[in-house]
Amino acid sequence: MAQIETPYLLFLGDAPDQLAAKVAQGIKDWRPEFAVGQYRMEGCKADMGLPDMNLATAKAAGCRTLVIGVANRGGIISPAWKKVLVAALEEGFDLASGLHNLLRDEPELVAVAQACGRTLHDVRVPSVAYPIANGVKRTGKRMLAVGTDCSVGKMYTALCIEKEMRARGMAADFRATGQTGILITGDGVPLDAVIADFMAGSVEYLTPDNDAEHWDLIEGQGSLFHVSYSGVTMALVHGGQPDALVLCHEPTRPHMRGLPGYTLPSLEALRDVALTLARVANPACVVVGISVNTQHMAEDEAKAYLARLEAEMGLPATDPFRFGAEKLVDALAAI
Amino acid sequence: MAQIETPYLLFLGDAPDQLAAKVAQGIKDWRPEFAVGQYRMEGCKADMGLPDMNLATAKAAGCRTLVIGVANRGGIISPAWKKVLVAALEEGFDLASGLHNLLRDEPELVAVAQACGRTLHDVRVPSVAYPIANGVKRTGKRMLAVGTDCSVGKMYTALCIEKEMRARGMAADFRATGQTGILITGDGVPLDAVIADFMAGSVEYLTPDNDAEHWDLIEGQGSLFHVSYSGVTMALVHGGQPDALVLCHEPTRPHMRGLPGYTLPSLEALRDVALTLARVANPACVVVGISVNTQHMAEDEAKAYLARLEAEMGLPATDPFRFGAEKLVDALAAI
């Protein structure tokens, strides 16, 4: 993945609601320094609270890349969008997108980008020939977020920890393994699109040797207990060579995401399986804490749940997005 | 993967030794009814003990597909081979290959195949758009071979069990997940070349609903303890939904294949991790036995080792290629 040039103009298109612009929201929340302005088309119902800009004003404000921060149904590039994208290339912007409909599959965009010397970044698919993992021990420290299920807050957990570590002056980098994370940070590995044999190697590539005290905070994917995607998770556990695992959970979910009939594992089961497997690659790996997505719980209820978890599991537990990541960073700093 | 038409003419090319023709050997050992003849070029040092045929005699003998049963260094298609392959297409044969150098990447072969209406089968890469796994319980029975390491005999174990089951009149099919296995049986999923998100789905696709007493005997890949390939293994454990696991081991290996510094797990560790994970997809899954590759042990030594394993693990243990698969099939039939 070639590094995407910053800062960004966030393209919100004709987003039908705020949720459709979650990529733009993620960039604005986690890399506000990249989010210079927003481009909204007629009828756009999303608003990041950023200055509204047209292409000329965004160019003058220093934006280098127009990032498609919105997803419509089916992940396609609509004709209405395409006019704006062509004009952006002509104005001198690169384009970046995580849509299933690749920029490179649109002949008009390819032709204009070539004519204008601009780059089309499709973060949905890999642009690197990753190696096969060699398992050699790397320098520096690594944290991996592992979940009882998909979409329980693993990306937000890693980003919250990065923010808190950086606030403390620690050396730390979020390492993106999914499309949203890559667009937020401008770099990463789209792990779900990597060829099976190269998955663990792509994670080694993403988290190379580093300073002894540097932390790679690796975005998790899937779950070892999610039968559709567990192979991807396994590659993170072994390719990531984590020194520390943070267990991620969403307590109100009735069944595994997309799998009616599959109940979520207990946090104890996740701890035991993930740690056993992680120690194959790094015998020193430990579980340092629990991150709970409490968005569907009242504040009192959430705090009582976290207190009970801490007592039961003997590990610090928090909702890092709601209550801060201090406890998790304290535990990581103690390694 | 489109089914490869049988029977085969086995192309041994200019194989420098018998080992270079291990694909041809596998077909001859496990699907002798497909192996009508062999085609050997000047200087060929391999011999399957089959009738030597030229293209015309093979055609007259009923061969439908020329299978490249030999691998040279780098997996490339040499100019000397290409002449034979072109002539084979013109003679009316399809071609099948597991080489890294794809048939479809050779313009001359593509042109002649098109002109003659023949099919090029590159089993190295998928030709199917596999679904994402849905985890829905399927009918029929499934056995998965899981290993302490790569290349410990998982394919041979599944093939030995298939042979013994068929000899007993049981309904059983070996399900190939690697290039050699696909060429042996003419069908399967090249799992190491599947995109990450679709790995488990491709295994579900390979092992669909079947008669209640039918056994799918699924070829394993990699190992849950091999950090380069464990994600592929994980997808087999969850996508395969096995009712039974057979543990596969090679006792004389000093370290994990290709990973100096990584010791092999114990069979107990493999049993515990594999069973815990397999029960996510199929709570009724059991470990039925142990298959040991004893090729580097004297017969007495091998028998003593197997007896000790049986006592220690409380499971039937055999080298199915050397001593027969009866014990494993007895255990499977009892489920």
TrEMBL record, chains A, B:
It holds the Pfam family DUF1611_N. It comes from the Bacteria. Residues 41-126 form the D-glutamate N-acetyltransferase-like N-terminal domain. Gene3D superfamilies: NAD(P)-binding Rossmann-like Domain (3.40.50.720), P-loop containing nucleotide triphosphate hydrolases (3.40.50.300). InterPro entries: DgcN-like (IPR011669), DgcN-like_C (IPR035086), DgcN-like_N (IPR035402), P-loop_NTPase (IPR027417). Residues 132-329 form the D-glutamate N-acetyltransferase-like C-terminal domain. This is DUF1611 domain-containing protein. It comes from Paenirhodobacter hankyongi.
